[in-house]
Amino acid sequence: MDESAIEQAELHQEFLKQKAIERQRAQVPKGIGPEECECGNPIPLKRRELGYHTCIACAEHKDRRDAQHRR
Ligand SMILES: [Zn+2]
């Protein structure tokens, strides 16, 4: 590993650390859901205010799955 590779690795670590901090900041106080769904899609504010923790696509996917289970 040469010097620049070490520097790259350090930069990457720093990048990951910043990402982790951002994620924690994105955790919104109670009553409102997270900004991002677990799939990575943004969740519309309206849904977050209603307490949903998933984006519309995931919710539809889940609905469909539940419907299949019921049958
Ligand atoms: Zn989603």
Treating each run of at least 4 consecutive H or I residues as one helix, how many helices? 3
**Main beta sheet, described?**
none
Overall average pLDDT: 86
Counting helices, strands and paired strands, the structural category is mainly alpha
Low-confidence stretches: none
- Based on DSSP secondary structure assignment, what is the total number of beta strands? 0
Q: Give the ordered list of helices and strands.
A: HHH
Beta-strand residue fraction: under 5%
Cα shape: elongated
Bound molecules: zinc ion
Cα radius of gyration in angstroms: 18 Å
Amino-to-carboxy terminus distance:
58 Å
Oligomeric form: single chain
Helix content: 55-70%
